[in-house]
Amino acid sequence: MITLPLLYNSYPLAPLKKASVKKKLQIELATEEALVNIFNYAYPDHKGDVEVICNSVNNETLAIDIVDSGIPFDPFSINNPDIAGDISSREIGGLGIFLIKRLMDEVHYRRENGKNILSLIVSKSEIGQKDNF
Fold first, then answer.
1. What are the sequence ranges of the domains in the chain?
2. Of 24, 88, 118, 126, which is most buried with the most CB atoms under 10 A?
3. Which secondary-structure segment (H or E) carries 34?
4. CATH architecture of 4-127
């Protein structure tokens, strides 16, 4: 499990100290889901590496870049799952990526120099909002 409180005092994650519990959980869940997908699928026949880089972009957004050198995988290459249909008739897979897209303000993917780079973007204006469960 990823716990962001350990990182709160480091720049650029310090603004998360003020984040609502709901927003913290959304960031943690989206990041954890992305990492679990990499752990399970990026390196099918050998060990590999994963790097998580957190940056503040223009002091307006928090960007969490998750970088791996595993097999190429563009999460936008698959369709969103049909969540309205009967669960017994749904295809397996795709819910984690769908969840990441729903929880983050923006999600971007690119492949550079043999690496997958998944960027999870959170607006700092969203960080300061109160919980509304």
1. 4-127
2. 118
3. helix 21-37
4. 2-Layer Sandwich (3.30)
**Contact yes or no for 16/4 (Cβ under 8 A):** yes
Task: List 115's β-bridge partners, or say none.
Answer: 112
Closest Cα partner for 68 from 110, 29, 103, 30?
Answer: 110
Find out whether the peptide bond into 75 is cis, omega within 30 degrees of 0.
Answer: no
Do residues 64 and 27 make contact, with C-beta atoms less than 8 angstroms apart? yes
Q: What does pTM read for this prediction?
A: 0.80
CA distance 32 to 100: 9
Task: Report d(CA 70, CA 77) in Å as an integer.
Answer: 16
Name the 3-class secondary structure at 118.
strand
* 81-92 confidence digits (pLDDT tens): 667 767 776 666
Kindly report the number of other CB atoms within 10 A of residue 42's CB atom: 18
Per-residue pLDDT reduced to its tens digit, 101-122: 999 999 999 999 999 999 999 8
3-state SS track over 56-79: EECCCEEEEEEEECCCCCCHHHCC
